[in-house]
Amino acid sequence: MILVQFCSSRILPSYNQWNFLLICSRHNDLPWNIRKFLKNQLREFRFDDLRDTQPWARSAWSHTDLRRLKEGMVAAQVSSIITAITRERLVRLFLPLFNIRIISLCLFRNSEHFISVSLFVYRIERAHKEGRLASLIGVEGGHAVGASLAVLRMLYELGARYLTLTHTCNTPWAECSTVDEPGQVARIGGLSNFGKSIILEMNRLGMMVDLSHVSVPTMLVAMRTSKAPVIFSHSSAHALCNSSRNVPDHALRRLAQINGIVMVSFYPHFISCGEKSTLEDVAAHIDHVRKIAGIDHVGIGAGYDGINLTPTGLEDVSKYPELFAELLARGWSEKDIQKLAGLNLIRVFKAVEEERSMPGGKFSGKLVNRIQAPMYEGRVVCLGRRVWNRGWCEDFGMIQGEQPGDKVPDTDKED
Ligand SMILES: [Zn+2]
């Protein structure tokens, strides 16, 4: 059982029965705000409580700090690394690198506040046991990789554990949700062959495929292509708000078949299709995803620090317990709440990591076989210095299993 010690009886009288709750808040754009507000000057930055600190206090985009994470009983926070949508390839690449650096620095400077980087799912569970808050990294926008599997691998090496295939415009190999809007024309019908290669390489690496922001054809092709469960990191139910950013019921049913998860966004434009929404509206979306896909396929996406409007009652990361109280009142059990709060995401993350080590190969067999869970469990993983050479791996206590001369897929080109 996964433990969370960040408990509070302030909101829920029965919370003392919930001591085994893990809240994984998916998709938080805090690094973007740190870069925007502080211009990367982190020396004086204190993350404890930003409610009285300018410019955070007056910004509609600021919803996260350590105190509120603790009040919200958050145990694992996934930070989104957004990339620039630009024709300039270098800009696309250096923004994710900047933001990963911001997260690393922020974690380092606040290590006394129980934050740790979690590169593998077992590290989240271990952080829990240590009473620390786990931090994960996702990259939002396939533009970050351009059309290079090598760059994708590098982002994984730097800690990225999911990639959102598109952002608000197409990549050369995947189409985004705006293609579904009236008057728009699809060019490649969702994913190109190279886009499929990206997904298979993510399977091989053990990286989650994120389908928020993509078009419906892209969702369907990606779900057919991926050998591991996929996620929607911040999308809601299309049946309740017909934004192209939301997931239609037929895709929810397909998602359940492949054991994936939709993590519901709190952005009012995706909840009520307007500028105002409420906690109850969010609960209705969560209920709908549960009704169509099942209790094992719903999670929390929120989107805090990346949205400038929030639902009434869910103004920041401290409010998650209020949402759980609403769902309890709607008849959800404590076990159901645990699944929504984090266990479903943990299950998907584990399945993605298992796929990475699956013998027999989902990619080419040999490639998938090279890294197996027992080889990295308990070892020091030295990121950024992993090399394609067994000797180096052994010398530096790195991930083992790489074979000198192993071939990598020859798919680093657009099609
Ligand atoms: Zn987004």
Helix and strand topology:
Blueprint: E1 23-28, H1 30-38, H2 66-71, E2 74-82, H3 89-109, E3 115-117, H4 121-129, E4 133-140, H5 149-157, E5 160-164, H6 193-205, E6 208-210, H7 216-225, E7 231-232, H8 249-257, E8 261-265, H9 268-271, H10 279-293, E9 298-302, H11 320-329, H12 334-356, H13 366-369, H14 373-376, H15 390-395
Parallel strand pairs: 1-2, 2-4, 3-4, 4-5, 5-6, 7-8, 8-9
Zinc ion is lined by residues 140, 213, 234.
Structural class based on helices, strands and sheet pairing: alpha/beta
CATH topology, by name, is TIM Barrel
Q: Tell me the number of strands.
A: 9
Question: Kindly, what is the distance between the CA atoms of the first and last residues, rounded to a whole number of angstroms?
Answer: 46 Å
Cofactors, ions, other ligands: zinc ion
